[in-house]
Amino acid sequence: MDCLFCKIRDGQIPSKKVYEDDDVLAFHDISPAAPVHILVIPKKHIASMKDASGEDWALIGSIHKAAQHIAREQGIEESGYRLVNNCGPDSGQLVYHIHYHLLGGKNLGPLVALH
Fold this sequence. Notes:
Blueprint: H1 4-9, E1 17-20, E2 24-28, E3 36-42, H2 56-73, E4 81-84, E5 100-104
């Protein structure tokens, strides 16, 4: 498999990690769209939200729980943050491993372009 995020998960590609547990990994985006821009991924490879099923739903919940924790640790929980999942080519999904963009640290307005 030639998945960028699996390579990051496996330590083949370096990242600036901010969170890790048995199921979830989070690291800084290399092209941030906000002062805080962290990618939150499941360690299990699931290509896209449309591919999630069965026990994956508990994993998706774990991702959201981790995102809440990270927002608190990054000091953006109170001021607000955005948690975005792109699903499929029309959404702009470029890496086919489920991931969430956790963005904050400034007023993001109604929209922000993500990759």
